[in-house]
Amino acid sequence: MPPNVSTALFRAAAKIPGVGVVPDADGRHGVEVARYDAYNPGVRDELIFDRKTLELIGVRSVATKATDTIEAGQVLGTTAILQRAVVDTKGKRPYSG
Hints:
- By secondary structure, this protein is mostly beta strands.
- It is built from one helix and five strands; from the N terminus they run αβββββ.
- The radius of gyration is 15 Å and the shape is globular.
C-alpha cells in the first residue's frame, strides 16, 4: 500500500475508539487501532502503524474472552510487514536478492 494511502487509512481508523501502543510481530512498536468483530465475539483485530510514518507495519488478533483453552489477552495470530514491492504481474513475487 503506498504511504499516502496507508496514512489515510491510519487517520480514518484512528477515529475508532480503542487506540493504543503495542509491539508488532517483529518486535517493533507502533500505534495500534483495534476493531471488535460482531461475527467473531471474543476476538479483537488490530492494525499496527509506524508511529512516525503512519505506514502499516503489521496486524494481530487478540482474545478478549477466556475459553477452556485460550486465556483473555492471548495473542492468536500476528503478521509483520517486513518488505514491500511493486510487481508487474499478478502473483509474481519480487526478487529477493
